[in-house]
Design goal:
Blueprint (H helix, E strand, L loop, with lengths): L9 H30 L20 E18 L9 E17 L8 E3 L5 E6 L3 E2 L3 E2 L5 E7 L1 H9 L3 H21 L2 H19 L4 E6 L2
Parallel strand pairs: 4-8
Antiparallel strand pairs: 1-2, 2-5, 2-6, 2-7, 3-4
Length: about 210
């Protein structure tokens, strides 16, 4: 009895052709990219001079600074497509710092009291606040990057800055959350109190009391 080959469905043939075309395109682009490395590339910095846009007087006392490190695991999936075709996952180590400060510019005329003999002073200060998280790009790096086939093809045409910005913003957000959960503001207030007491005592004040707004 002679067996006959079962013909493949039309959609299966089209899918096979599509995969073959993508593989050929991907291979060709990688070869072009390697040729560019063989001939070498040159980098020219044609940036213009920096322009001063504004000047601000700062009256806040930077009383404490915390260094933080977070591990960001960012994954993006596409519905109805496997990760091997379309999807990204980035494991990123983010290192940064957050400053805590006391805004001395908010001290009003009634917040500072000095006796007639100028030996006693009472100060009422605003509570310490946290500054914006500052991500240290020199100490932050991607541990691994997983890309689907379509995403790898897209990376050949562009640097894909959106993914890089997304993972950095997420790292900065987590660093800010860690700073809020720490005791950084309390430490800043203690340091500010010690600084003001030392300064006023050097000016002859014997009794210096510092409190913070309730």
């Amino acid at each position: 009895m002679t067996s006959r080959a079962v013909p493949l469905p039309r959609w299966a043939k089209l899918l096979g052709v599509l995969v073959l075309v993508l593989v050929l395109v991907f291979t060709g682009l990688r070869l072009m990219h390697r040729l560019g490395d063989v001939f070498g590339t040159e980098t020219h910095d044609r940036s213009g001079p920096a322009l001063l846009k504004s000047v601000r007087d700062l009256s806040r006392y930077e009383a404490a600074s915390g260094n933080f490190q977070v591990v960001v695991d960012l994954e993006k999936d596409t519905k109805y497509l496997p990760d091997a075709i379309r999807g990204t996952r980035t494991l990123y180590i983010g290192a940064g710092s957050v400053d805590a400060y006391v805004d001395l510019g908010k001290i009003g005329s009634g917040d500072v009291r000095v006796n007639d003999a100028r030996t006693s002073a009472t100060l009422k200060l605003p509570h310490a606040q946290l500054g914006s998280p500052a991500l240290d790009t020199d100490r932050s790096y991607a541990v691994s990057k997983q890309r689907g086939l379509l995403d790898r093809l897209g990376d050949l045409f562009s640097d894909n800055p959106n993914d890089e910005q997304a993972v950095r913003k997420l790292a900065a957000r987590h660093i800010g959350e860690a700073a809020r959960d720490s005791h950084l503001t309390a430490r800043a207030e203690r340091n500010t109190t010690d600084m003001l007491r030392g300064l006023l005592r050097s000016l002859g004040f014997k009794d210096v009391r510092v409190s913070y707004e309730s």
